[in-house]
Write a structure and sequence with these properties.
Blueprint (H helix, E strand, L loop, with lengths): L19 H30 L1 H4 L1 H30 L2 H46 L12
Helix pairs in contact: 1-3, 3-4
């Protein structure tokens, strides 16, 4: 009997059988994901602490970095568990954390690009006014001519 094409059937094994090279790849991946996650958490904390210097956008970026770092460290923990206990479900959970990490990256960098476009539009819109205000002064507009 054939499976219905509209409803895919996927069985997730409770145990995971991998070759030694596959286990080494999982181990290396988990180690690097953990290192990158910790780095992103520290970077996020530093961004949040610069609220007094650079204002609110760095706090928002810091929160994104902390969230991305926690997802990566959780993925590393699940993948290491999958490697140690040959647990296929832990591997799937780790990959779900990786998926969330990539979605958060997409959202963060999309917001950064939109913010940069907004700043560029504001600069173009207000540059003539700024030049007119500084017309009588020497300095800022002298290099534009």
């Amino acid at each position: 009997m054939e499976a219905d094409r509209d409803t895919p059937t996927v069985e997730t094994p409770a145990d995971l059988t991998l070759a030694e090279t596959d286990l080494q790849v999982l181990d290396t991946f988990a180690r690097w994901a953990n290192r990158l996650g910790i780095f992103l958490i520290v970077l996020g904390i530093l961004y949040v602490l610069t609220v007094f210097v650079y204002a609110i956008p760095t706090v928002i970026a810091g929160i994104f970095f902390i969230a991305m770092g926690t997802r990566l460290t959780a993925a590393a923990r699940e993948i290491q568990l999958a490697r140690e206990e040959a647990d296929g479900e832990a591997l799937i959970a780790g990959l779900a954390y990786i998926k969330t990490f990539f979605i958060q990256n997409l959202v963060f960098y999309s917001l950064v690009i939109l913010f940069m476009i907004l700043v560029a539009v504001l600069m173009v819109a207000f540059a003539p006014m700024l030049e007119h205000m500084l017309e009588g002064t020497e300095g800022f507009t002298s290099f534009l001519r």
